[in-house]
C-alpha cells in the first residue's frame, strides 16, 4: 500500500469510529507501526483533517472535514437530485426517510430527514451500519454487483459462523428483493421499527444508493403497501434525474 493510501486509511478509521479514538486503537485498526501512524497523524493534523484533544490526546475529525461535508451536502450531484424527493416523501408519508450508500464494508447514511412523529431509530446522517441487516443493507446488497455481493456474503458467513443453509436462505431472500424491486425489514436494526428500501441508480444499472422509509411497526401496519409504493416511486424519480 502506498504512503498516500495509508494516510487515507488512518483518516477513514477515525471517521468511521464516530468518536474520539486513542492511538493504541488506531494501531490495532490500521495494523500500522505506532511510529508510522504518528507520522501520518501529523500530516493529517497539519492539513486540518484530524485534531488531537488537548487533554485526552484522543484523535477526532478536524475542521476541514466540516468544510468537505458542507460541500458534499450543497454540491454533490446525488444530494442535489435526492434532497427534494426525500423532503416530499417525508411530507406525504409523515415518516422519516434516509438516503444510504455502501462504502468500504459499511452502509453509510448520507442524509436523514425526520418526520414530526416520534421514531426511536439508530439511523443518523454520517453514521455507519452493517451490510446485511435491515432493509437498506439488503437492498444495497441485492442490487450490487455479483462480485461484491459474494464477497460480503462470505465475510458475513465467517464473522457470524453462518451455516451453508443459512447463507442459501439469505441468497434466496436477496433474489426475491431483486425481482420485486425493494426490500423490507422489521426489528432487524432497531426494535419496533419497520422499513422499506428501494434502490437508486445512476445510469441504467449502476447502483448508487438506496432510499429508505422508516416507521414504527405499529403505525405502519395498515400503510405498508402505500409506503412501499411511495418509496419506490420516489427512488425511481431520483434515478431518472441521475440519468441526465
Automatic annotation (TrEMBL):
Molecular function via GO: DNA binding; DNA-binding transcription factor activity
Domain (HTH iclR-type): residue spans on this chain: 1-63
Record key words, sorted: DNA-binding, Transcription, Transcription regulation
Protein name: IclR family transcriptional regulator
Superkingdom in the source lineage: Bacteria
GO BP, one annotated term: negative regulation of DNA-templated transcription
CDD domains: HTH_ARSR
The keyword Electron transport is assigned to this record: no
Domain IclR-ED stretches: 64-244
InterPro entries: ArsR-like_HTH, GAF-like_dom_sf, HTH_MetabolicPath_Reg, Tscrpt_reg_IclR_C, Tscrpt_reg_IclR_N, WH-like_DNA-bd_sf, WH_DNA-bd_sf
Amino acid at each position: 500500500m502506498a504512503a498516500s493510501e495509508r494516510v487515507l486509511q488512518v483518516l477513514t478509521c477515525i471517521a468511521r469510529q464516530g468518536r474520539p479514538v486513542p492511538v493504541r486503537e488506531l494501531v490495532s485498526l490500521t495494523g500500522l507501526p505506532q511510529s508510522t501512524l504518528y507520522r501520518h497523524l501529523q500530516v493529517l493534523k497539519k492539513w486540518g483533517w484530524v485534531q488531537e484533544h488537548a487533554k485526552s490526546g484522543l484523535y477526532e475529525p478536524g475542521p476541514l472535514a466540516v468544510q468537505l461535508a458542507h460541500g458534499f451536502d450543497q454540491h454533490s450531484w446525488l444530494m442535489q437530485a435526492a434532497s427534494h424527493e426525500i423532503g416530499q416523501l417525508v411530507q406525504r408519508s409523515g415518516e422519516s426517510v434516509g438516503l444510504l450508500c455502501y462504502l468500504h464494508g459499511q452502509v453509510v447514511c448520507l442524509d436523514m430527514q425526520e418526520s414530526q412523529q416520534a421514531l426511536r431509530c439508530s439511523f443518523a446522517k454520517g453514521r455507519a451500519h452493517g451490510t446485511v441487516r435491515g432493509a437498506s443493507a439488503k437492498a444495497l446488497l441485492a442490487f450490487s454487483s455479483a462480485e461484491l455481493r459474494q464477497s460480503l456474503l462470505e465475510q458475513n458467513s465467517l464473522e457470524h459462523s453462518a451455516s451453508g443453509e443459512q447463507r442459501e436462505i439469505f441468497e434466496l431472500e436477496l433474489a426475491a428483493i431483486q425481482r420485486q424491486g425493494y426490500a423490507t425489514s422489521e426489528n432487524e436494526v432497531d426494535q419496533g421499527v419497520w422499513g422499506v428500501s428501494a434502490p437508486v441508480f445512476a445510469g441504467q444499472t449502476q447502483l448508487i444508493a438506496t432510499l429508505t422509509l422508516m416507521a414504527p411497526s405499529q403505525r405502519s401496519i395498515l400503510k405498508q403497501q402505500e409506503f412501499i409504493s411511495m418509496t419506490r416511486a420516489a427512488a425511481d424519480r431520483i434515478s431518472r434525474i441521475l440519468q441526465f
